[in-house]
């Protein structure tokens, strides 16, 4: 994070002249993390993977784990928390539990720097002085619930220090997602990561790897960790940067978002020069330019539609979402250019929801339009771009468009190898799909007729694997910050 605008660089790695692209620069074992409240019975409290069947902690009945390995790994951090939850009967929210875990760790090990840690939690920014009235009120409420939760037999900390920890979590808490990357499920504090500054067009990316302890003896064994990964060649002395937010907003809006959530003014090259702003607001090319009036109207209509769509989506009324998006598209298409972000947002939702409703043919067309736009806007090695290509590839595959589908899965794979790394569960899923679609493609090329016959037979016998339910999350920032 940006400590008062001071730019800091992570030392050692900058000295190497040529960094192999797919190799991660730096990885950190998870320092401290907790799970979102509503998900506590759906996601493992150690590795943050979603599982059908989880084992419950017999003591507090609150924590859930994949298996004994995950439970054992959790015990050191869970022990004191377990008895506090048991005593109180209920568990407080994830920020409070995270603060408690941090303070218990300080009680156990002291607050100093541990090995491999470049910055202590004490010296991280809390930005409490920038808080508005609403945020101050929330902080007071968090403090109250913390004090209720904190057991009298544990070491007692001053109010100011507890506020500092809560403030640090508020602006430096890193969003953790489940193994499929579809949902933000928890929050963690990784002090070293907080040293990496933001750039809207960064040279690194951060990814949470849930790890794979099941494969202990194989090459796939990975420990749960946070990874800072390099996106392109970095020259000596160049600062390492990551993007805290999604790039698909015009520079003015990104700057506003960063100021509001992270309290700094972005002065990155893309913001200063407004690079790609013109593409993001592109208008339909043709003989007649649409008038300013019409453009304004369409954008206003798009914004209103988005609000209605969000509501319908969170209510789970997907046919309404489809209707609203189709209506909006008919208004947008004669006016907005193919890279216009208002158009792309509608295309993204529409293709996702149509896939969920198994209307793959229609969905595939929209997803193609969407990724074509994304490819012109995003950094070529952007995680969101990779994930969008993967979704579009799967949609095409389901629609029987095997050539296009396979092509997209390959492109997605090339990106995820860099942004997520070869051992990430998502990359491994994608690799399996890529191999499978390649086999089908070969069959298709050898004998088209046979391919369709086999495909039909397969579809009759087994229902197509359900697409995940669309999540209703406004694009989460890198660091979990209350909006
Ligand atoms: Zn687990
Ligand atoms: Zn427990
Ligand atoms: Zn910027």
TrEMBL record:
Pfam families: SET (PF00856), zf-MYND (PF01753)
Reaction(s) catalysed (UniProt annotation): L-lysyl(4)-[histone H3] + 3 S-adenosyl-L-methionine = N(6),N(6),N(6)-trimethyl-L-lysyl(4)-[histone H3] + 3 S-adenosyl-L-homocysteine + 3 H(+)
Domain of life: Eukaryota
InterPro entries per record: H3K4_H4K5_MeTrfase (IPR050869), SET_dom (IPR001214), SET_dom_sf (IPR046341), SMYD1_SET (IPR044418), TPR-like_helical_dom_sf (IPR011990), Znf_MYND (IPR002893)
Alphabetized UniProt keyword annotations: Metal-binding, Methyltransferase, S-adenosyl-L-methionine, Transferase, Zinc, Zinc-finger
PROSITE patterns, per database record: SET, ZF_MYND_2
Entry's EC annotation: 2.1.1.354
Residues in MYND-type domain copies: 44-82
SUPFAM superfamilies per record: SET domain
SET domain sequence ranges: 94-245
SMART domains xref list: SET
Record's protein name: [histone H3]-lysine(4) N-trimethyltransferase
Natural source organism: Pantherophis guttatus (Corn snake)
Gene name as annotated: SMYD1
């Amino acid at each position: 994070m940006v400590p008062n605008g001071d730019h800091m660089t992570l030392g050692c790695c900058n000295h190497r002249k040529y960094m192999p692209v797919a190799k991660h620069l730096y990885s950190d074992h998870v320092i401290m993390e907790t799970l979102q409240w509503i998900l506590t019975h759906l996601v493992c409290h150690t590795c943050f993977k979603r599982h059908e069947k989880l084992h419950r902690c017999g003591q507090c009945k609150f924590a859930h784990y994949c298996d004994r390995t995950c439970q054992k790994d959790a015990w050191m951090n869970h022990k004191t928390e377990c008895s506090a939850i048991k005593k109180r009967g209920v568990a407080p929210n994830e920020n409070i539990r995270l603060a408690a875990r941090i303070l218990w760790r300080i009680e156990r090990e002291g607050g100093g720097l541990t090995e491999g840690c470049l910055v202590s939690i004490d010296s991280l920014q809390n930005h409490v002085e920038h808080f508005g009235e609403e945020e101050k009120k929330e902080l007071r409420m968090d403090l109250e619930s913390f004090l209720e939760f904190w057991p009298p037999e544990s070491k007692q900390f001053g109010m100011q220090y507890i506020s500092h920890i809560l403030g640090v979590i508020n602006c430096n808490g890193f969003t953790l997602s489940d193994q499929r990357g579809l949902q933000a499920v928890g929050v963690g504090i990784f002090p070293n990561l907080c040293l990496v500054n933001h750039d809207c067009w960064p040279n690194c990316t951060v990814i949470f790897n849930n790890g794979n302890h099941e494969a202990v003896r194989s090459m796939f064994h990975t420990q749960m960790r946070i990874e800072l990964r390099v996106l392109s060649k970095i020259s000596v002395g160049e600062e390492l940067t990551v993007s805290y937010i999604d790039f698909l907003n015009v520079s003015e809006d990104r700057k506003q978002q960063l100021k509001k959530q992270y309290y700094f003014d972005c002065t990155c090259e893309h913001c200063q020069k407004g690079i790609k702003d013109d593409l993001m607001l592109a208008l339909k090319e043709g003989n007649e330019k649409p008038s300013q009036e019409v453009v304004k109207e369409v954008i206003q209509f798009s914004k209103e539609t988005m609000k209605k769509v969000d509501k319908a989506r969170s209510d789970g009324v997907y046919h309404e979402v489809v209707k609203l998006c189709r209506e909006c598209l008919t208004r947008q298409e004669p006016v907005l250019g193919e890279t216009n972000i208002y158009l792309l947002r509608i295309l993204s939702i529409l293709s996702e929801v149509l896939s969920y409703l198994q209307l793959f043919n229609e969905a595939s067309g929209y997803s193609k339009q969407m990724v074509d736009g994304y490819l012109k806007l995003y950094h070529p090695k952007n995680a969101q771009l990779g994930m969008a290509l993967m979704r579009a590839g799967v949609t095409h595959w389901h629609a029987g468009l095997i050539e296009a589908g396979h092509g997209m899965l390959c492109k997605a794979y090339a990106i995820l190898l860099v942004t997520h790394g070869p051992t990430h569960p998502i990359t491994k899923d994608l690799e399996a799909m890529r191999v499978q679609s390649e086999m089908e493609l070969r069959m298709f090329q050898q004998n088209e007729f046979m391919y369709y016959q086999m495909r039909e037979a397969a579809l009759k016998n087994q229902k197509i694997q359900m697409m995940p339910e669309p999540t209703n999350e406004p694009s989460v920032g890198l660091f979990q910050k209350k909006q």
